[in-house]
Amino acid sequence: MKKVIIASLTAMFVLTGCNTFKGLGQDVSNAGNAVTGGAQDVEDKI
Fold it and tell me: CA-CA distance, 36 to 7, in Å (whole number)?
């Protein structure tokens, strides 16, 4: 019984971690897009 509980808790933490890293990847991607957009604006002004 203890093994089932431990396995369930481990799976929960792993799946939560995957969602966290997915969100982090989206945040980094959005930041990169913002930098690209800012650089494009500067290039257009020059």
Answer: 43
